[in-house]
Specification:
53% of the residues lie in helices and 12% in strands. By secondary structure, it is an alpha/beta fold.
Amino acid sequence: SSGINAEWPLRPGVAECSVVFLAVKPHILPGVLEQVAGSVTEDKLLVSVVNCTTNQQIEDLVGKKVPVMRTLPNTPVKVRSGVVVAYPGTHCTPKHTSLCKSLMEPLGLWSILPTEALIDVASGLCGSSPAFMFMMVDAMADAGVRMGLPRQVAASLAAQTMQGSAKMVLECDEHPLQLANNVCSPGGTTIEGVYRLNRAGFKGIVMDAVIGSIEKTQGKEMRYNY
């Protein structure tokens, strides 16, 4: 009823589909494409969510002028509040891009990036950062529990506060720092918390975590200085 065909063996299912999603680990992809190459024709759109694999690599594995759209969804697409970044391959037309957008946009924010190389950057910024957000919610909830709130209440309040703050960034025409400044009264409670975050190097720590995730995606050697 969904119109989605998920079969094994793969080749008959691929033959019947107009859009084929490639959602496997990178080391498995060559074997999968070898199985289905005979059924992949130039009128099909391949949508890849395979990490660290370029459009050109997929085109070369298929060996045909098939349209490929490389995408990167993050985990909040599970609740339709995620991010999907994409970049079209050599043989993609605006029609293919529009088709892919119509399929993926219901999952959250859809964005075509200026270059394919920036997908690796988005992987660290959008793909890894939900884990950082979850850790932030957990830390805020722990603070609430430490000061007397029940665990479930503290977690719900922290999560809703993060969701509302993110919505303000998206919908208010103000820089995130200005939004933060708007909450800070002179000598007040919020500026005290901001002072302590800044004293601990909060912004640098967050930037370092995102940059580290990006560099790991790019295959750069990891260096640790403790």
